[in-house]
Amino acid sequence: MVKKTAFVTGDAEGVGVALSRSLSDEGYTVHFCDVTLEKERQRLDILRNEGAEAHFHRLDARDHEWWKKVAAELHSDEIFLDLLVNNAGIADPFMEFTSENTGNWSKVLETNLMAIY
Hints:
Number of helices: 4
Structural class: alpha/beta
Number of strands: 4
Strand content: 15-25%
Largest sheet: 4 strands, parallel
Order of helices and strands: EHEHEHEH
Mean pLDDT: 86
């Protein structure tokens, strides 16, 4: 049986963590990513200690250049994906919608909408 490979974005917490674990339990080699490093290194250790074949890639899903770098890494290692889960997303529950500062709103839109593209 050929082992399948999955790539999960936005894996720092919540749904992404559950997806990576579930895919690993189903026998997938899991490549996961997030822009953060500290939580991800811990997650990588946990998954590997549970017997998973897991790999972490640092990626800001909003940035096309980061995507190109990760794609080049995968290609150079001859890794072909069977499944891509575009899970990256953020929310700012404390953002003031009456504010004239559009920076936070732009970041949410770039992550939740543009990153998938």
